[in-house]
Amino acid sequence: MSDASNGLLKVRRALLSVSNKKGLIEFARGLREFGVELISTGGTHRALRNAEIPAAAVSDVTGFPEILDGRVKTLHPRIHAGLLAVMDNPDHVKQMKEHGIESIDLVAVNLYPFEQTIAGENVRLDDAIEQIDIGGPAMVRASAKNFRHTAVVVNPDLYGILLEEMRAHDGCITAETRFRLACAAFEHTSHYDAVIADYLSGMTGRQNLPESFTLSEPKSLTLRYGENPHQAGALYGKFSEYFVKLHGKELSYNNILDINAAAQLCAEFDEPAAIIVKHNNPCGVGTGETLADAYAKALATDSKSAYGGIVCVNRPLDRATAEAINGIFTEVVIAPDYAHGVLELMTKKKDRRLMRQTVNLRSLNELDLRRVAGGVLVQEADRHRLHASDVKVVTKRTPTGDEMSALLFAWRVAKHVKSNTIVYAAGDRTLGIGAGQMSRVDSAKIAAMKAAEAGLPLEGCAVASDAFFPFADGLLEAVKVGASAVIQPGGSVRDDEVIAAADEHGLAMVFTGVRHFRH
């Protein structure tokens, strides 16, 4: 019963029912040191009995056996009244005495391992369904609702902290701790239900944009700060499983954004590719027969901006490429693996983060989310991949084979550059990138300026625009620097004017019918 004067709850009776047995025996022994009466279920009861820790079975308390293969065991008034009774309410106390029910002061519950089950290969629906916990969430929610009179712990890592508090308060738990535990309990059941709903909805053709959107991800990393030092930041979800840090300083909020941007672009290429990203935009992209060749092309696009950038490759990092990367200050390197001896070479720079990418991002079926005031914008991820057969030639001249290769390369890169975007490219490398300008003409000028600074000729190159040219002026900027082929979505009311300008200057131009805005 709680002491109203100080908010302390004396733990006299506890129910333990856990799928994850981590720390169970130590916790149970700690509770017994305070003379706490223990109640337990199924496998938990067997574990306690094997450890010679006295505990009553739930069926002894309810007077009713577990039935339906254990589906029904704790769903009983003698359990739930014990969890939900308001012990400073005289009517509740009276009813408890009338029915011979005792209060339960502490509940330690963690749920059937549904998420771990569905993460396995070739999981049958029937097996997944059997891992949907019913009694566990009911006890967690009941105890959390009644946190003033019942403490609930769902995380085994907190057992030791809870025992320390009981030792400091003569077997009692404070009101502040009970409230924090209740909050964690509701977060736990919310995440559990969200995972189940997501899995089951995917079994029958998921509605990608449902009427109600729920996002529940566990915190995986507390960051030093967010985008700026005055902002708190944290990472949630499985990013740390997809990108495993092998070496270097802690990841920052901005590192994570750049890692994602680099890996998403790298996933566009099947051939050996190297991507250099700075501030969420590529500053160089190259492909080649070897990674070293690909990296050299990517770096040559804009070696000045590459300083302090993020490098991502889609093959195991070999020594030749590693030595080239070591020649310039690089914040993060991402690779699917590292050749023998390469990690030893790369770790000589102690602060640089080395990441192993464990997942092909093209295999993921994730929605794209962005927070706005009062809500969340949700869309399907931009997974569109363009092939030569998909484009429509709209000019008198048809692109040559080499030009088509360059057009497709430029288009793949433009998809991952902030709008408005202009990309000049050859068939295996970027030559100049203009990102994020309010005017497409300015993007074209910046891309040309970058190419000139790098000493890369644009004569005969391909140019990609992420959205249509609203006027011919943007196209004419490409003409000035010598571009010979253009790829763009089309769809402007002035398409005829833009096509005529291309024909006048002998350019080949294709329409994709697809736009790649990236705001």
Offer a concise description of the structure:
The chain is α/β, with parallel strands linked by helices. The protein folds into 3 domains: 2-202, Rossmann fold (3-Layer(aba) Sandwich); 239-363, AICAR transformylase, duplication domain (Cytidine Deaminase, domain 2, 3-Layer(aba) Sandwich), CATH 3.40.140.20; 389-511, Cytidine Deaminase, domain 2 (3-Layer(aba) Sandwich), CATH 3.40.140. The model is unreliable at 1-5 (pLDDT under 50).
Walkthrough of the structure:
This protein is an alpha/beta fold and 519 residues long. It folds into three domains: 2-202, 3-Layer(aba) Sandwich (Rossmann fold), CATH 3.40.50.1380; 239-363, Cytidine Deaminase, domain 2 (3-Layer(aba) Sandwich); 389-511, Cytidine Deaminase, domain 2 (3-Layer(aba) Sandwich), CATH 3.40.140. The protein is built from 20 helices and 24 strands. The strands form six sheets. Strands 11-16-15-14-12-13 form a six-stranded mixed sheet. A six-stranded mixed sheet has the order 19-24-23-22-20-21. The two termini are 57 Å apart.
Task: Sum up the structure in keywords.
single chain; disordered N terminus; Rossmann fold; six-stranded mixed sheet; 38% helix; Cytidine Deaminase, domain 2; 24 strands; alpha/beta; 3 domains; 519 residues
